Fold this sequence. Notes:
By secondary structure, the chain is an alpha+beta fold. The chain has three domains: 21-92, 2-Layer Sandwich (Dna Ligase, domain 1), CATH 3.30.1490.20; 98-222, D-amino Acid Aminotransferase, Chain A, domain 1 (2-Layer Sandwich); 231-375, 3-Layer(aba) Sandwich (Rossmann fold). It has 13 helices and 18 strands. The chain has helices at residues 5-14, 28-37, 65-75, 125-131, 149-157, 163-183, 219-222, 232-239, 258-270, 287-298, 317-330, 346-355, 364-375; strands at residues 2-3, 23-25, 42-46, 59-62, 79-80, 83-84, 88-92, 98-107, 112-118, 136-140, 185-195, 201-203, 207-210, 243-246, 251-255, 277-280, 305-312, 337-343. β5 (79-80) and β6 form a beta hairpin. Residues 43, 45, 51-54, 59, 61, 93-94, 96, 99, 122-123, 191-192, 204-205 line the site of guanosine-5'-diphosphate.
Amino acid sequence: MNIHEYQAKEVFRNAGIPVPPGEVAETPEAAEAIAQKLGGRVVVKAQVHSGGRGKAGGVKLASDAHEAREHAEAILGMDIKGLTVETVLITPAEEIDTEAYVGCLVDRAAQSVTFMVSSEGGVDIEEVAHSNPDAIKKLTIDPRYGLLPHEAYWLAAALYDDPSLVKQAAKIIGQLSKAFSAAGASMAEINPLITTPAGDVKAIDAKMSVDDNELFRKPDIAAYRDLSAEPQSETKAREADLSYVKLDGNVGCCVNGAGLAMATMDLVKYYGGEPANFLDIGGSSNPDKVVAALEIITSDPNVKVILFNIFGGITRCDDVANGIVEAMKRIDIKVPLVIRLTGTNEEEGVAILEGAGMSAATSMDEVVERAVALANPA
Ligand code: GDP
Ligand code: MN
């Protein structure tokens, strides 16, 4: 789950990190009132679950409350990477000397948490990572001890020469580490971490992602969930108790079991196709779940074919077949279905499909090859 900048700032502030104040607004009038309260010179910032807002025109400096209202008018409703801006954060405009990057994430390859810092922070950090990777310093912690003070100093010293700035940054990096662990985060980021002409170090942007599986024991964080800011398909999938991740391809995949879903996506790639999604309909399916799954898959306009790959263990093939037949009645599916059904109650399942004028195969290679061909007509 991603949270908004203003929410991540609240988390960071509670951890002691110096973060300028701010309030959110949903209307230009509210934005103006907040700007007035904050002294006029403010930054108006789009609150969407996406980076690169600055470059997209979603972060604007205002010299007075009236201008803040105008910026809010322009930014509210704006589309940033497919997400509509519903809320803006109004925060005092800071004077900036330098912009640095500080982040940490769960590093699966290292089986730990890796911290990354760069003195070349700001809106071009992706470019820096690409063209000048040496400008980013990395440190993987020992998860038994967490980030140690000397490690935080080492990271901070990679950012600044001035001992006062290093000391402030080391403290902030330590606080970020604590906030990251306490939230059960998978990623936390400050970009930019600024220095001011007065010699202060502050976080003026904040980003955090939290593992969905942590949320049940982190109610404070779970409360930050903003459904309106998430892809509708993923919200719908979660409500239907389906594991769904939208991807960019055109082969819609409906599979039972996460392992088989992964294998299916691999095979789609092997045959030259691109999966449109990861979708695990679970171990014990019922027809309603299949209907929900098909609704979600077909709501993606990229999908050109739907591939069912069902291995009946606990899942019964006849349940899935009933679900497919039911879904065909309830929703207007305009793309071809390619179905593999094998395992528990296979004969019953196939009979149900055939009764409805459909067919099923048993070989995984065969159906995947056919689905890829249908998705990419020569
Ligand atoms: P992002 O583009 O989504 O990462 O949004 P940021 O919050 O990082 O803002 C983008 C850029 O806007 C920053 O790198 C700063 O250069 C600038 N910016 C943001 N807040 C302020 C501010 O308070 N004062 C000034 N002068 N610039 C700011
Ligand atoms: Mn940023």
